[in-house]
Design goal:
Largest sheet: 4 strands, parallel
Number of helices: 28
Radius of gyration: 29 Å
Shape: globular
CATH topology of the domain at 428-610: Isoleucyl-tRNA Synthetase, Domain 1
Length: 619
RNA sequence: GCACCCGUAGCUCAAUGGAUAGAGCAUCGGUCUUCGGAACCGAGGGUUGCAGGUUCGAGUCCUGCCGGGUGUACCA
């Protein structure tokens, strides 16, 4: 259905200004003032940004300084030329004040007209998208994230991929893209060989009957130690040591079990069929708790029937060849490690599966972009994967963006990879439990605002705050760096934390509850807002930048851009709310300010929702 | 050895090649007879690891060092 006035209703101020600058630059080029190639314009126009300081206005353009040299003119003169054309650009005068003289070396500063700002905010208040325009050219984007090995318990290492991937998928979807999320489960690899070997050599039937998940987890951990046979590990585990002594070939036998599974051995296949639902139930419980869902669960096993064909194809194309019994793609010289697609024992590798996956997705989903949200330690794998896929020449792939969205390691407060005191990796579920438990202690320490809370509500709040804290701490960090995990820091009630943001939402909601305000009626009746105070204006323009923040998240796949913006918004709101009365105000001021509160609350709530973080009405 | 990532306030971290490098915590001070004080405002605190280079402009790009992390043939 056509949205009659959509484009007019939802204005992205920065985009509008960039278009005006585009017009100005084209005029400049047409006038022969400076030569600008058509493909340069995008880059120059991107130099329109939010100002560093409100005293310079709302937006600034800096391209005059870059263009001055080749124009053979002073930067300020070029800036003056641009500003002149800017003022005459279609649609400019309706939204922006006439630009003044260039400042400093040649900054063109632009201020949004107060009446345009007030009108845009009023429209956003009445809009279920809160004024955020959808992208003009929606893409099909595959987001590949989480992808745990189902045979092992999920641990702290899975949190970042899951949380970051989910947030990116939600944000792209809200932006208007066609997003396909796929949990590429590790359900076919060596870890199953370990469980199979363990099942055959040291299972505990009673334990499996009582708690199948726990027993499979035990087998995995035990057999991994036996197969690795590291003396320092065996020294602290007498059970594993005894098994290792009795089965010196365990490592090789595990690989054999894996190979048998891959070859279709009936016994191993039947066991795999038996184990899979158990493994799925385990991870589903965690996804439920994190409120993370996927459109597809196409694990490694799904692609297994295609793997032999992939290898044949690569060999026939002359890309892959035999080496030391294995088959690999040699991308660089012979001294560079090849991209192995088949092991000497005949088994396939995750490289093979990933190639098959790319081909399958290309055929069935026809994506414009594929994002792999995976640990930075796999950077080389993805470099080789993308390069091999390109050389493979799959039809349509040349127009697909393949992106490894890498992230750093989770560290403990000692700066080393996050482990328990005993040195084991931390289970994800135990981590969530501890977060919720600590959140409960914080929530339970309060006073009259929570007096009426029952046990159920209190538990719900603790769950929301605890899980939110863990997610937000992760998302608010630049994803490329390693990140130090600290419950104390993430549960602080001040600063850029989930609890602070959730509290900000609760405060806004509190106004409407306390004032008995009908928010729906407020939105319908909001024809204009008044921005007489600088703090009202500052809040208003911040609110209109929601779409810009989301746009910036997408361009670099960086959710921390959104958390930072939300935190700034909460700050603008606090300053506004602290110095101006709302419920106690009268007449149009009251309605206008209530409208600002309503929009702030909804944007904060939606922003957190796009990060996969819940909110509560009271806390 | 080679490749990639990272070195920013005491601590944890931000900062698309743009204006005076910003937050939070911690420290110190201030506001307000609380529309939810879990608030607001302010101060001190920096040679952005070091040295060069490119640029009108460098925390950001390039080169070389120093320090840390990760990866580097049949795990994923």
């Amino acid at each position: 259905m056509r949205d009659d006035d959509g484009p007019q209703r939802r204005v992205n101020l920065r985009s509008a200004l960039r278009e005006a600058f585009r017009h100005a630059l084209e005029c400049l080029a047409a006038d022969g003032v400076v030569a600008i190639a058509p493909d340069e314009i995008d880059g120059l126009v991107d130099q329109v940004r939010e100002t560093a300081d409100a005293k310079f206005g709302d937006y600034s353009g800096t391209m005059a300084m870059a263009l001055a040299k080749r124009a053979g003119k002073k930067p300020r003169d070029v800036a003056t030329d641009i500003a002149r054309h800017l003022a005459a650009a279609p649609g400019f005068a309706e939204l922006f004040e006439s630009p003044g003289d260039p400042v400093g070396p040649g900054f063109i500063n632009v201020r949004v007209r107060d009446d345009a700002l007030a009108a845009a905010v009023a429209r956003a208040v009445a809009d279920d998208r809160m004024g955020v325009a959808a992208v003009e050219s929606p893409q099909t984007v595959v987001v590949d994230f989480s992808s745990p090995n189902v045979a092992k318990p999920m641990h702290v290492g899975h949190i970042r991929s899951t949380v970051i991937g989910d947030a990116i998928a939600r944000i792209l979807r809200f932006r208007g893209h066609h997003v396909i999320t796929d949990n590429h489960l590790g359900d076919w690899g060596t870890q199953f060989g370990m469980i199979l070997w363990g099942w055959k050599h040291c299972r505990d039937d009673a334990a499996f009957a009582a708690d199948p998940t726990a027993e499979l987890g035990r087998l995995y951990r035990l057999v991994r130690k036996v197969a690795d046979a590291k003396p320092e590990e065996l020294a602290s585990d007498s059970v594993a040591a005894a098994l290792a002594a009795a089965h010196p070939e365990a490592g090789r036998e595990v690989l054999l079990e894996t190979a048998k599974l891959h070859e279709g051995d009936p016994e191993n296949r039947a066991l795999w069929e038996q184990f899979m639902p158990v493994c799925r139930a385990e991870i589903d419980r965690i996804y439920d708790r994190l409120h993370v869902t996927f459109d597809h669960w196409l694990g490694e096993s799904f692609f297994q029937p295609m793997l032999a064909g992939v290898v044949e194809d690569l060999v026939r194309a002359g890309l892959a060849r035999e080496s030391r019994g294995a088959i690999g793609v040699f991308l660089g010289g012979d001294d560079e490690p090849p991209f192995l697609v088949r092991k000497a024992d005949g088994a396939f590798l995750y490289a093979t599966t990933d190639l098959a996956t790319i081909r399958w997705r290309l055929e069935h989903w026809k994506p414009d972009r594929m994002l792999y949200v995976v640990d930075h330690r796999q950077g080389q794998h993805f470099e080789q994967l993308f390069e091999t896929a390109r050389r493979w020449g799959l039809p349509g792939l040349e127009n697909v963006d393949l992106v490894h969205v890498a992230f750093g390691t989770v560290l403990g407060e000692d700066g080393k990879p996050f482990k328990t005191r005993a040195g084991d990796t931390v289970g994800l579920e135990a981590l969530l439990d501890e977060g919720v438990e600590r959140a409960a202690a914080v929530v339970g320490s309060g006073d009259e605002a929570r007096a009426g809370m029952g046990d159920d509500e209190r538990r719900h709040v603790a769950e929301t705050v605890g899980i939110g804290a863990i997610k937000y701490a992760d998302l608010s960090q630049n994803r490329t760096t390693d990140y130090v995990f600290s419950f104390d820091k993430m549960l602080q009630l001040t600063g850029n934390t989930a609890a602070y943001m959730q509290y900000a939402v609760a405060r806004v909601e509190g106004i409407f509850l306390r004032g008995g305000i009908d928010r729906e009626a407020l939105r319908r009746g909001c024809s204009a807002v008044r921005l007489s105070d600088p703090k009202e204006r500052a809040l208003a323009i911040e609110l209109l930048r929601f779409g810009e923040a989301l746009e910036d998240v997408e361009s670099d796949a960086r959710p921390n851009v959104l958390t930072a913006w939300l935190y700034d918004l909460a700050g603008s709101y606090s300053a506004f709310y602290d110095s101006l009365s709302v419920l106690k105000a009268e007449g149009p001021d009251r309605d206008s300010r209530l409208a600002l509160c309503d929009l702030t609350g909804r944007i904060l709530r939606r922003g957190l929702d796009l990060l996969g973080i819940g909110t509560v009405e009271k806390m």
